Amino acid sequence: MIHNITEERKKSNRRDVTVPAPLTEEELMRLIGTVEERELLHAPGHLKGNILSQIQAGKRRERERALFSYRAKVLVGMAAALTVLFIVPVDGTDKGDMPRTGILESLYDGETQYVDEWERDILERQQDIEETWERYQAGQKRADARKRYFRKISEKFINHKNWED
């Protein structure tokens, strides 16, 4: 019942609003005549300038946003590179400081004059193989140290799962 009363009120409010009837032929011709005699309203003169300035401001904001995004990406990349440089362990050995002991060095001390060219090539290849093996072993040591380091870091994170933000 209350629902019906509110519906009736809405209907009566709608009927009170006067809706203009469509224009008759005479009224329409009179409107056309007045429009032809006097021009319709024009847009303000500053409207075009305001629109163009808003477009330029939007483009400027977009360029500034793109520049900020680019700067942020560069900074994040630099931070990541610096983090990697500080995290990865370095063994600190230099090839120039290490004493070289091998077959070729013992031969070059005085016996090289008696070794022919073919034997010298074999000895140089052997030395290259030994140096490559030493570099490989040093790389493995660094890789193992790196794995141990990251394992320690991951254990720290695993042990502290309930950190507060």
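[next item in queue]
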Amino acid sequence: MRYLPLTDRERKEMKTTIGISDIKELFNCIPSGKCYPSLAEIPSELSEPELIAAFKEMGRKNSFSDHLSFMGAGAYAHFIPEVVSYLSAKGEFLTPYTPYQPEVSQGSLQAIFEYQTMMTMLTGLDVANASLYDGATATAEAVLLAVRKSGRRRVLLAANLHPEYAAVVHAYVQNLPIELHTVAVNEKDGRVDEHDLRAKLDGSTAAFVFQSPNFLGVVEDSRAIAAAAHAREAFAVQVVCEAMSLAYLVPAADCGVDLVVGEAQSFGLPLAFGGPYLGFMTAREEFLRQMPGRLVGQTLDLEGKRGYVLTLSTREQHIKREKATSNICSNEAWCAMRAGMYLAAMGKTGLANAARTCHFNAVYFAAAAAALKQIQVVYPKNFYNEVLIEVKKGSAADFHASLKKKGVLAGVPVSWFDPKQKNRLLLAFSEVHDRKAIDRLLAAMGERS
């Protein structure tokens, strides 16, 4: 049965009422040639075998799989156990809507609860939500949370915060009475300039938002940063782009950090051309009522049996619109659920081994790269799995292009984010790289020297 909401007579009456003779007149604001384009180039229908063959032919044009990639800067290649893809694709996880009725959603709710638990274990903080869109929007939500909680309107952002994250924060607050100020970077070590931080922290500051490991790959002194923020009764918000570092570095809670937010794509989500990704947020218990997203809790039913429910859901669909802090719904929860499956499949030992290998591979590269004449490691200390190098002759873009011709994607040119940085490349290393792969990268760089 076809559903036609309007009859021809009704359409004619509507056109007469608004004074048009043709529906196309509604689109006069669109430049000619851009509206109603020709569909001549769209191929005719194909049978299923023909369609599969056509897609295979298109796939053969993609040469990325032939390249050795060391790209990162917020999106990281990691090994994903096959069981994660299998379980997360099961219909009961993949297709359900919001778990309004806990009696029929116990599987989904328990999986999300386990994800929250594991994220709090990794950060050392009290509560975790499930979840947010991506790392950039999670950072922006943390800014809004800090402002709501503190009642202050001034927020400091570290200059070595991921540029895309900073841009999203600015977009979020551009029409709100919130002041954003930037804290400088100490060029000697790539870390936040603590003197500039202390000078800019004042009684009207809600929070200082910093990234660790930061966009330059350097691990910040989170303990000193948190102490400086707390001295002015401001919150310390740590952003994490590479979630794998959580399994290797000292937990943020041990350093006094109040909130840890960021991108958990590394936990079982493929690169997938940029999404969907997984924004996470963990916080001290005092922030619980102000957190966006969902929070699944564990309880007992009338028979004393363990069960799971949506303890907190701050979407306008569930509570008074003016009190809502989120519009997060089912698709983000599925990404969180998949991350939980990944963490469970890897286990404590497996995750720790993968995180350690990421760092050791970066160390191996940095030590060997010191002998190359064409490049210089900018910050040879305090990095996790990303290493910033500087090309001594020519531009980083040319250097990157020459290695690409050899089948090696030598990191990300920093000029993609900052046009002034013409001779720097940021390279990422993970457990998917073995020594043979890194040696191939070094050899290609040596040949370019």
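[queue empty]
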